[in-house]
Amino acid sequence: MKTVELKRVGVWSAFKFFGGAFMMVGLVLGFFVGLVGIPDSLALSILPLIQGAPFVISFTGSVQLGLMAAVSFAIFYGIAGGLIYTVFALLYNIFAIIFGGVRIKVDEKA
Questions:
Q1: pTM above 0.85, yes or no
Q2: Is 102 strand, coil or helix?
Q3: Cβ atoms of residues 100 and 1 within 8 Å
Q4: How many domains does the chain contain in total?
Q5: Domain range holding 100?
Q6: What are φ and ψ of residue 79, in 5° steps?
Q7: Could you give the CA distance from residue 40 to residue 84 in angstroms, rounded to a whole number?
Q8: Which residues on neighbouring strands pair with residue 102, listed in sequence order?
Q9: Residue 110: which residues within 8 A CB-CB, separation 6 or more?
Q10: Which pLDDT tens digit goes with each residue over 5-64?
Q11: DSSP assignment string, 12-81
Q12: Which of 38, 56, 77, 97 is close enough to 22 for a disulfide, judged by CB 3.0 to 4.6 Å?
C-alpha cells in the first residue's frame, strides 16, 4: 500500500474534461427540451425567422428548433461547466499549497 498526495490539479485539464462532459449533457438535454418544450404553433411562427440562417438544416418546426436548442445548450453547458470547474481547480491548488493536498492510498499491483 502506497500513500500519494494530490498536490495540484491541472487547470486546463479540468476545463477540457468538465467542459466536454457538460457539453455532452447539454447536447442531450437541449435536444429533448427543444423537442418537448416547444409547441408546434410557436415553432411554425418562429420558423420563417430562422429559415434563411446558413447553419440551419431544413427540417420541420420542432425538430429544427430542437437541433438549435441542442447546439445552444451544448455550447452554454460546455463553457459554463468548464469555467466553474476551472475555478474549483484553482481553489484546490491554492488550498493545497496552504493546507496540503488530498492523500490517497494506492495499492500497487503488477
A1: no
A2: strand
A3: no
A4: 1
A5: 2-106
A6: -70, -45
A7: 35
A8: 6
A9: none
A10: 999 999 999 999 999 999 999 888 887 777 665 555 555 565 566 555 555 444 455 566
A11: HHHHHHHHHHHHHHHHHHHHHHHHHHS-HHHHHHHHHHHTT-TT-----HHHHHHHHHHHHHHHHHHHHH
A12: 77
